[in-house]
Each structure stands twice: as C-alpha cells, then as structure tokens.
Amino acid sequence: MEDKLFKEFEVFLQKSDTKGEIVPDTVIRFYNERKTDGHLDKCLDMAHPVRAFYIQHRVYNEWGAMIEDLKANKTIALQPTVAGFLHKYKSVMTSLGFWPALGDVAGAADNILRLWNVFDLNVKDIIDGEIASTMSRPLKKNEIEFITGTAKNLEMVYYHLSLLSELYNRTQDEAEKENYRKRLNKEYYLGRIYTGTSHEVRDFAQNPMEKHRVTNPVSIYVPAIFNDEEFTELFRFLQFGCKHRLKPRVLCPFYFVCGNRMDTKPMA
User: CA 236, 216, 266, 262: dihedral to nearest 10 degrees?
Assistant: First the structure.
C-alpha cells in the first residue's frame, strides 16, 4: 500500500511542477529520501529488525509529518494539485483501515533493544544497520532518537546512554552537539554512571545506590565531554549522594580522583 501511495505522491509532484505550484522543501526532501529508501527496500530482507523498524517509523512518522507540512500553509494546501493529493491521501487512509500506529513503531524499537540485550550487540553496528552480520541501511538521526526515547521509557538506562553517546559522537553541528552533551550529563547526574563490564554497567544503571554499598575502591568511567564545573558537581554527587562515601578511581583523560582529593591532571 505504501508503494501505491508513493506513486500517487510522485504524480502529484510532477503535476505541481508542471503547473508551477509551490511545494515545501521538506516535502521534496521527503520524496528524495523515500525514493532512495525504496531502491534499498527491494534489496533487503523485510525480516531484518532495523529495516522492520525504519519502515514502520517512516510510514507512521515521516508520511504524517510530510502531510502536516503540506497542510501547514493554507495558501499551499488550497492549490488544486495539493488539495487533490491531500484528499487522495485521506481516502487511502480510510480505505486501508489499518496503518502502523505509534505502538507498532515503539514495538519495533523495543525489539531492537531486546536483541541488543540478549545478544550483547554493538551499538555502532546497530546504528549502521548491521545485526548478526546481516545488513540494512544505517539509521537516520530521527530514527536513532526514537529508539533512544523508547529505551528511556523502558528504563533501559545503559542503552539510552549508549545511543545518546553515539548521537553526540556522530553529530557535526555544534549546537546539536552541545544539546546532546547536556542531555548526557543530566543522565549521569542522576547517578547513572558507567562502571565495570557492560553487564555491571546495566546492573549499576538500574540500581545505582545498591551497587556502591562497598568499601573497596570502585573504578568509574566518566565521559571526557564533562567540563570542570560539571565534573565537580558529579564528583560531589558520588561523594555525598550515596549512603556510603565512595573512594572512586575515575578514569578520564582530564581527571584523576582518589578518596576526597581531586587532581586535574591527565592520567599516564
């Protein structure tokens, strides 16, 4: 059904261009991306978890957003060709009776997270579309954001933080990078700190207070993106926020912490 709708969409754009009607840039961009995805879809296995997710995400989220962009400006929406396509889209939705909903997209994202957990997958591979040596196309930023939000809603803290870290690392725009940095730091302030092996990370993230009722020194990994003020706040949380005072050894390019003394010197 999506293929049929896309053909109608393609005809609409051709007619709009012929008649000189205005179409928002976001709609043209959606068309170009969908055309690229369509060629890839024919070459890839529908059973691939990443592909199953992004197809449902596209159908539910991106088609809906594109239609809203057409409706947003009344001058554009009332153009004959645009109005005709909007009517046809509504007719298709009505006749179809069943179209992926938010719960379906969230379920597909949940499936990826649970496969990640069971098979201890690599976050970079998942984002690049690789699961168990089978390939899909890489995930887009808005798709990664959706899975990140799903992980947070499910309180899968380790996965949420891992995805946020990848978004930070892959983002070139400085304003977006700063936004991801702040989001990451906020989560760490809540006591969701990386420590030990990947499985220990998950245990700690789910129950940070219990994890640190120990007397021996604990190694904690802190992101190098923390600035001085943020690191000091984090250190105070670790020192005073738990029932038992910690004596952490923090491994970071900029800081070495031992007991209640903090030296701002690089580690050897």
Answer: 30
List, as one string, the DSSP characters of the chain.
-HHHHHHHHHHHHHHHHHHT----HHHHHHHHHHHHHHHHHTTS-TT-HHHHHHHHHIIIIIHHHHHHHHHHSHHHHTSHHHHHHHHHHHHHHHHH-----HHHHHHHHHHHHHHHHHHT--HHHHHTTEETTEE-PPPPHHHHHHHHHHHHHTT-HHHHHHHHHHHHHH---HHHHHHHHHHHHHHHHTT--B-SSHHHHHHHHH-HHHHT--SS--EEE--TT--HHHHHHHHHHHHHSSSS----EEE-SS-EEETTEEE-----
Q: Which residues, including other chains, have CB under 8 Å from residue 268's CB and lie 6 or more apart?
A: none
CA dihedral angle for residue 116, residue 64, residue 153, residue 109, rounded to 10 degrees: -10
Give me the pLDDT at residue 183, please.
Answer: 84
CA distance 70 to 63: 11
Q: Quote the CA–CA distance of 179 and 219 in Å, as a whole number.
A: 27
Residue 100 pLDDT: 82
pLDDT (mean) for 228-256: 46
Between CA 257 and CA 249 the distance in angstroms is 5
Calculate Rg over the CA atoms of the chain. Answer: 24
Confidence of residue 161 (pLDDT cuts 50, 70, 90): confident
